[in-house]
Amino acid sequence: MILKTNPVDANIAKIIAGHCNTNLKIIEAKFNVSLDISKDYIVTNTNDFELTQILSRLFDLLIVLAKKEVNLTSRDISYAIEVVLNNLETEFIELWNNRKALCYTYNNKPIYPKTIKQFEYIKALNNSDMVFSIGAAGTGKTYLTVCHAVSLLKKGDIKRIILTRPAVEAGESLGFLPGDLKEKIDPYLRPLYDALYDMLGFEQTNDLIARQIIEIAPLAYMRGRTLDNAYVILDEAQNTTKMQMKMFLTRMGFNSKMVITGDISQIDLPKGKESGLVEACHILKGIKEISIIKFTRMDVVRHPLVSKILECYDEA
């Protein structure tokens, strides 16, 4: 059956199919069909009307992206499939029409939002002084937050970046690690360091840390402080207690921005202790100046297997 789509020329077909038809094989495996886009139209072996409608919408979406000279990766194809299955084509086109580089890495690589929810998250970071970011591993919540913080630091909109997380053991024992509390917890802050190294390079990051323009510390070190002119990131916030979260949120000073990230499916608090992140999102949701962004499995930007693994755990 010939799918009804927008015109497909040879260059567009090549971009959509990918190297050695890698992208096409992803679509074929997902819908259990065979496809041919070697001519100026698309052919499939299915006579299922509903499925052909889905495939037509999918290829119309991919044609739009290909015309923007986007190098479509396997991840882009998998996400486009989810977009179509969830009827989000309009939002996805808005993302591609309006997306701008959030910042540039140390190697001058632009960082763009890759999903609809990431696009929404960046808008929230730009428009709100306090943002809660909730989602599973791989959704980009920590990385994008650090990117945004570095971009504001470079523009001079803030004077320092403060990165913190609660000192809660995730099945390991902090007590057996050498050094003081900060030295014990530094390995747990590795995702924050990695993002900083990506944005600023190793030497500049360490220089800014030495000059205390970037401060990395356990959450306990925040008590009693007022954080003015700062971009403050609380990572792994699902492991804060109610009192710790209240203490942290009330540290906010003038000309400051606070971003709280966490994954409520991975709470490592002792039995009987409720997560401060869960409570905060519930009781603060009515404050219009606070944005709460919730990422889903669709927003995982790691290997496609990660999304499938998360789905299996959710079902179990």
Topology:
Elements: E1 2-3, H1 10-17, H2 22-31, E2 35-36, E3 42-44, H3 49-67, H4 74-85, H5 89-98, E4 103-104, E5 110-111, H6 116-127, E6 130-134, H7 141-155, E7 160-165, H8 181-185, H9 190-200, H10 202-210, E8 214-218, E9 230-234, H11 242-249, E10 257-262, H12 276-283, E11 290-294, H13 304-315
Parallel strand pairs: 6-10, 6-11, 7-8, 7-9, 9-10
Antiparallel strand pairs: 1-3, 2-3, 4-5
Walk across the major sheet and give the strand order: 8-7-9-10-6-11
The biggest sheet amounts to:
6 strands, parallel
| Helix-strand sequence | EHHEEHHHEEHEHEHHHEEHEHEH
Average pLDDT works out at 86
> Low-confidence spans: pLDDT under 50, at least 5 residues?
170-174
Note the overall shape: elongated
Rounded radius of gyration (Å):
22 Å
Number of helices: 13
Structural class: alpha/beta
Give the CA-CA distance, first to last residue: 39 Å
| Proportion of beta-strand residues | 5-15%
Question: What's the number of extended β-strand segments?
Answer: 11
Name the helicity range.
40-55%
